[in-house]
């Protein structure tokens, strides 16, 4: 579908990890937390292949999560860090943090947004990011309200929700029909709330 006109690309693509999304295999998996049963066994579309961000790099403002998986395909830029865990849990299980590449500059910026473990019942995508984290990313573009954020690899629509909350327009693209429907439902719900 690309290229499409937009002021910025903010995206969380498949990382190329072939990630097993059955979180119930972990003792602290989402099925063990007492939250809503949202187990998703299906692998993420496109995750079995290496991700190549080249088609996104021509946009003026670009933020791409998962940069540690494809650093050889990126130019010098800034790094956004999401520390997902509370300090006591550093080094215990899986990654402590995730990294995004931002086009331009060479700074390293850390988000204070924590993993919303207490909101597990709201989880509707196996690799869902918190809305405040994606809002922080959009704010990093320093674009004014009414700008258009392009969100390829939309997943469950998290970045769309963040864009709406910040008064931005957005274009979302998602290949998986079930995730696309989840996005549409979440966005419709968000817009209903905004119109109240
Ligand atoms: C890491 S997930 C994004 C999760 C999102 N941040 C969220 O909070 O829900 C990446 C998404 O990209 C989708 N995807 C993979 N290949 C795609 C493609 N070629 N075009 C559009 N979407 C694609 C997958 O189905 C998956 O939902």
The gist of it:
By secondary structure, the protein is of the alpha/beta class.
Descriptive overview:
This protein is of the alpha/beta class. The chain has one domain (8-195): 3-Layer(aba) Sandwich (Rossmann fold). 19% of the residues lie in helices and 20% in strands. It has 3 helices and 6 strands; from the N terminus they run ββββαβαβα. A 6-stranded mixed β-sheet has the order 3-4-2-1-5-6, covered by helices on one side. Helix 2 links the parallel strand 5 and strand 6 (169-173). The chain is globular and about 45 Å long. 31% of the residues are buried. Residues 30-39 have low confidence and may be disordered.
Query: What would CATH call the class?
Result: Alpha Beta
- What is the β-strand count? 6
- Which geometry do the CA atoms define? globular
Q: Decide which structural class fits the backbone.
A: alpha/beta
Strand fraction band?
15-25%
| Annotation field: number of helices | 3
Strand adjacency order, main sheet: 3-4-2-1-5-6
């Amino acid at each position: 579908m690309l290229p499409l006109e937009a002021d910025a690309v903010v995206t969380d693509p498949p990382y190329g990890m072939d990630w097993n999304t059955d979180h119930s295999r972990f003792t602290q998996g989402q099925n063990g937390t007492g939250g809503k049963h949202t187990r998703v066994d299906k692998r993420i579309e496109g995750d079995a292949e290496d991700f190549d961000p080249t088609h996104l790099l021509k946009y003026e403002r670009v933020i791409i999560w998962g940069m540690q998986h494809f650093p050889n395909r990126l130019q010098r830029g800034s790094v956004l860090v999401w520390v997902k865990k509370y300090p006591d849990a550093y080094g215990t299980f899986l990654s402590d943090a995730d990294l995004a590449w931002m086009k331009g500059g060479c700074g390293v910026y850390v988000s204070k947004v924590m993993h919303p473990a207490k909101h597990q019942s709201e989880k509707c995508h196996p690799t869902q990011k918190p809305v405040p984290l994606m809002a922080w990313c959009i704010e990093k573009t320093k674009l004014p309200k009414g700008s258009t954020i392009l969100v390829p690899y939309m997943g469950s629509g998290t970045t769309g929700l963040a864009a709406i909350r910040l008064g931005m327009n957005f274009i979302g693209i998602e290949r998986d029909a079930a995730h696309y429907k989840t996005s549409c439902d979440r966005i419709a719900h968000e817009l209903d709330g905004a119109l109240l």
